[in-house]
Amino acid sequence: MRSLRFLLQKEFRQIFRNPAILRMMFIMPVIQLIILPQVADYEIRNVNITVIDQDHSTYSREMIRKITSSGSFLLSGYHDNYKAALEDVEHDRSDIILEIPAGFERTLVRENEAKLFVAVNAINGMRANLGAAYLNTILRDYNQEVRTQWIRFPKFDEIPRVEVMPRNWYNLHMNYKLFMVPGILVVLLTMIGAFLTALNIVKEKEVGTIEQINVTPIRKHHFILGKLIPFWVMGMIVLTLGLIISRIFYGIIPVGNIGLIYLFASVFLLAVLGLGLLISTIAQTQQQAMLIAFFLMMIFILMGGLYTSIDSMPKWAQVVTWFNPVTYFIEVMRMVVLKGSGLNDIARHLGIIGIFAVVLNGWAVMSYRKRT
């Protein structure tokens, strides 16, 4: 234990002597956590729409007014023919074309139905899909309003109506910051743990100090613990800073027990740091370590359920997410922060992350022994 204490003193001194590591660990995550949730918003606003109104009737004008007053669309063009509207799309002035055919009002009144044509610029798939969904909702509401005006209800024998009152549980106003901030904090914690641990040991390889350590009587597990514990402590400090920023800037107070977040984060950091140690045993230079860590981080982030729902992924991708530790922490953070889940609810996630920690650290120790 004495040698471990000396190793820890050495590691902490090295960390605090290097201002670059301190900036990467404390300043960068704070700035990212303040900026990223402001722009990570799934809600689409100001979708440019071009309208081809060949009817110029009362109903068509009322429908256009309803679309433009919704707050989601900006009227970027108003034409009489499709060719002119298509030019707006080709020059990126418009995202959606809505064509109202001639005789729209007459057909609607006489035949009780009328057809509209909607064309979507699908270069930006998410913007196109959500914009088209918004437009369909507005048109459906408008259709319902028109039909309601036409129906004459008997005075004392009203037609039964079914009224749907939706309610969002755990995030009443669908505030995306409540949804995104816990996930972004997990990603930042993962990147700090994996990157810095991997770079730390590889740097010792490059400067040759690891060879000096290898010839000393220091035990291998003491060496690994000496590299792991300082960054584990730093990771917990970063988590605390992230929770404070979430409270100050976004007003996020976990509904559940905050101790559960720290409990899960403590095991999660062991897994992530084990991954960093494993990378450091494979890579010979800091550039190699950076590239390997970046490759894994891209997969972890994009397949972690932060930006896209895991249930919407293909079956093979859902299987891959079983081996992604970030997936479990993001889910646990949202469960505890938004839903107030308890220890029993996250026990399965905690057990899986514990297995990750044992496997990755054990693999790193075995790999390190093989090379020495």
Characterize the structure shown.
- The chain is 68% helix and 6% strand.
- By secondary structure, the chain is of the alpha/beta class.
- β1, α3 and β2 form a beta-alpha-beta unit.
- α2 runs parallel beside α9 and α7 runs antiparallel to α9.
- The radius of gyration is 28 Å and the shape is elongated.
Share of residues in strands: 5-15%
Distance between the termini: 22 Å
Radius of gyration: 28 Å
State the secondary-structure class.
alpha/beta
Task: Name the overall outline.
Answer: elongated
Query: Main sheet?
Result: 4 strands, mixed
Structure in a nutshell:
By secondary structure, this protein is an alpha/beta fold.
Q: Topology, please?
A:
Elements: H1 2-17, H2 19-39, E1 47-53, H3 58-68, E2 73-79, H4 82-90, E3 96-100, H5 104-111, E4 117-120, H6 125-150, H7 176-207, H8 209-214, H9 220-250, H10 258-282, H11 286-302, H12 315-321, H13 325-339, H14 343-371
Parallel strand pairs: 1-2, 1-3
Antiparallel strand pairs: 3-4
Helix pairs in contact: 1-9, 2-7, 2-9, 7-9, 7-10, 7-11, 7-13, 9-10, 10-13, 10-14, 13-14
Give a quick set of tags describing it.
372 residues, alpha/beta, four-stranded mixed beta sheet, 4 strands, 68% helix, elongated
